Amino acid sequence: MFKFKTPSQKTLKAMSEVAKGSDRTDYESEAVSRICELTSHENARITSSGNNSIFITLSAIEGDIIVPDQGGWHGFKQIAKFLNKNIVTLKTDTGLINPKYIDDLEIKDNSALIFTSFAGYCAEQDTKEISRYCRNNGITTIEDASAGVGDRKKLLGNGNLSDIIIASTGSPKIINVGRGGFISTNDSEIFKRTSLPQKLSKTSQIVCAGICSELENVDKKLELSLNATNYVKNSIENTLHANKRGINVIIPHSNAKEISWNLKKQLTTDKSGFITTCPNYNRVKQKAIAIEIKNLSYDCLERQHLDKIIEAVNSQL
Hints:
Low-confidence stretches: none
Order of helices and strands: HHEHEHEEEEHEEEHHHHEHEEH
Distance between the termini: 21 Å
Strand content: 15-25%
Strand order of the largest sheet: 1-9-8-7-4-2-3
Number of helices: 11
Oligomer: single chain
Largest sheet: 7 strands, mixed
Helix content: 25-40%
């Protein structure tokens, strides 16, 4: 059976030392500094969770909140609705954002587009084209880079492309501390406009110590996940967005529910594990099987383990 991603022993030890009081380093300041270095943004804040990062960020937006029609995160719409923001749904190419579709929308001034680094975790967004269009049209870009931080190609989680970057550092994210999150931006006014939500966002030196530990090799962890996913994706026929980088594999199939159930019984004892079923707004709105490589422990990303997944999936298709 496959193991699921948890905080590393090094990260747990760093957090434990702070919890015991034996390490009094100001890890919050260090984490902020490292996040700014990672994202190329001037300002950052540690938050209590990824959803809290979304809450703070969306509360600072004065106009509409543009969300993709699929392949995003359901919290985008839920939090925007809670904040009484006007939500505008953007048509996508099976989760991938094509900025030309924004031309068909009626949106207010000072609006923002919020999206994830990977559409449904399956395919990287064209952040360069999204950035170019939105900056030319006065639209703020908010990238949820929970899965994209540490990109060695500097296409995801890059503050030179996205105006605001938000992330969760909970499990099973790339920065995996078990809880927490962050926001980074060059616009410090965002934090001034959201002073009340920030007061409700409590973090701790323990979480910050964990984030600092995880940031030391975040690029390596993302690269491992990308390479493993690419290997699986190219070993199974008819995968979605086969030529795009991603950290899960989505396979459209009319019998997705039964196949997913059979794979769960064969590969894991966990009811959800790393196999999920679509349609699902967070993935794609069609029948499909999703193999969540991103959820697996890094020592399960070796080829002999991936071959077991490939063999099991191909035997069901």
